[in-house]
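Input structure tokens:
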């Protein structure tokens, strides 16, 4: 019956809703906008499957062999495809391979209302929408059930999601020879409500509905200094420096918007149940092996299983590849091994989410107005931001 404080400890992974035999559990937004299970007492038969599947209640007895895994820095050779990815394109070639071989891919897309949602598909055009970072908690829906059906039909399935979602999938359907899991190096997730507040704030400024969001566009200043790019129905495009001047992204990277459980997340390092782990390869510095990494982006890929190594061998020639040690990746990716530190005024932001305008809320409770950021803003407006590029 999930008798614990859901507001503080629920990952919102939807395992419980997917394993319930009576469809008695629905995932709904709590006051902060994070997905929590709501149980229909009239439908519930007290079978206990939700408790058995819950990833918060689960003891972490299963350990992967991450320190001895094969690790690589990679960048796709096809430059146009690299530009469509957040970093080096690690996900895309793996996903394409599954589609070409008659399999299915489950990943996160923006739907028509700019809601981040996981979908299962074998349509390459839909899979293309799974590329790029969506810095918000995604809605899983019935994806785990759908994946189980495909596995039972003998289909191969690739799943891409956060470590908690990867764990949730395993708890829902079990480990299967045709199931391949690609887990992200995860900092945490903001709520759909806080994202909607920001989207509505921008829509009000532009007097038009938002139709796309690219949080880490590399065209102007490269991977090290990406821009956020938002497009609207009236044709307007709004751009800003992602990590420094975009109110939403800069708040995200500071840890100010995460789900409460993200600050104590146990699905890190050896507790990530996946075949692949992928993410930005921050700290990479070998320009001789991958010359364009600062401009085009570079991914870290960790191969945890024999299945992952086999798939990677089949697409190896699609990438520029540099083998590295696990410690090289972990050193500059702290979120791979430990939860993000809770932002001091995180709770104030969510307490005011329905009371204050997004802009006012963030500026009041973060350091968005710091002297450094004011200087960066001036340089950006003068189009001389290259002076501070890494």
């Amino acid at each position: 019956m999930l008798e614990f404080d859901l507001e503080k400890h629920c990952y919102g992974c939807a395992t419980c809703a997917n394993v319930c035999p009576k469809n008695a559990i629905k995932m709904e937004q709590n006051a902060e906008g994070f997905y929590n299970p709501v149980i229909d007492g009239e439908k519930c038969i007290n079978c206990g499957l939700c408790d058995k599947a819950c990833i918060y209640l689960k003891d972490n007895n299963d350990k992967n062999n991450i320190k001895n895994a094969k690790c690589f820095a990679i960048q796709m050779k096809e430059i146009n495809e690299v530009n469509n990815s957040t970093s080096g394109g690690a996900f895309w070639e793996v996903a394409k391979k599954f589609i070409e071989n008659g399999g299915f891919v489950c990943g996160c897309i923006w739907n028509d209302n700019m809601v981040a949602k996981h979908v299962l598909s074998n349509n390459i055009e839909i899979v293309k929408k799974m590329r790029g970072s969506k810095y918000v908690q995604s809605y899983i829906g019935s994806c785990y059930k759908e994946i189980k059906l495909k596995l039972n039909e003998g289909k191969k399935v690739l799943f891409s999601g956060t470590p908690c979602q990867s764990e949730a999938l395993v708890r829902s359907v079990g480990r299967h020879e045709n199931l391949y899991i690609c887990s992200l190096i995860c900092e945490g997730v903001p709520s759909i409500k806080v994202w909607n507040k920001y989207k509505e704030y921008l829509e009000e400024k532009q007097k038009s509905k938002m139709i796309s969001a690219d949080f880490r566009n590399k065209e102007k200043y490269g991977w090290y200094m990406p821009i956020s790019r938002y497009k609207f129905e009236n044709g307007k495009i709004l751009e800003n420096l992602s990590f420094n001047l975009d109110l939403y992204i800069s708040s995200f990277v500071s840890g100010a918007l995460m789900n409460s459980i993200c600050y104590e997340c146990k699905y890190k390092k050896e507790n990530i149940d996946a075949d692949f782990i992928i993410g930005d390869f921050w700290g990479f510095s070998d320009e001789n092996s991958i010359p364009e990494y600062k401009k085009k982006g570079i991914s870290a890929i960790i191969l945890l299983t024999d299945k992952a190594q086999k798939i990677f061998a089949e697409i190896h020639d699609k990438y520029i590849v540099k083998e590295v040690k696990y410690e090289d990746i972990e050193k500059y990716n702290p979120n791979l091994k430990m939860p993000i530190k809770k932002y001091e005024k995180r709770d104030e932001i969510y307490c005011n989410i329905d009371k204050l305008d997004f802009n006012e809320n963030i500026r009041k409770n973060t350091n968005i107005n710091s002297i450094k950021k004011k200087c960066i803003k001036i340089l950006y407006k003068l189009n001389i931001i290259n002076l501070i590029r890494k």
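The chain has 16 helices and 13 strands. The longest strand covers residues 210-217.
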